[in-house]
Structure prediction request, 183 residues.
Amino acid sequence: MDETGQPPKIGALDIFLAFAQISISGFGGVLFWAHRVLVEQRRWLSDREFVDLLALGQLLPGPNVFNLSIMIGDRHAGLRGVFAAMAGFMGVPFLIVIGIAMLYQRYEALPLVQSGLSGMSAVAVGLLIANGIKMAMVLPRHWRPWLFGLLAFAGVGALRWPLIGVLAVLAPLAVATSWRRGR
Prediction:
């Protein structure tokens, strides 16, 4: 919201540029960059809106931040915004990946290339942990969301159960407990 309480005027070009910036910044994932660009730099979303839209994006088929980009594009610029978000998110990285694949095919055996890939993996893990902590800070200070997060982690991460099965059980339980608490 701007000073008058109105949502910011965001055009298709702004959406394209924002998601191009997000997608070319992320190595091993763009969630950290999506939060930084959309919430902290451009202020198109609040922390809570970001978490809510991301949660919806995770429930839909496809990559969660891509789903988020489509929702934001539609919200601010309609169908033009959707196509701008998709092009920004996929276009430049597509060209970059083609170039990198050609270089990797030629130089993959070099020790320097192998060391560089190991270093990028460590950075990606650190960014993922930092973003998870930052997003958790906006969750309600109540035990239920943490319980369901812990149960999901235990089911998928520790016990290696299929994600769809864990979601099929936990999602209705979480909605039911939230609905019951709200009454």
About this structure: DSSP finds seven helices and no strands in the chain.
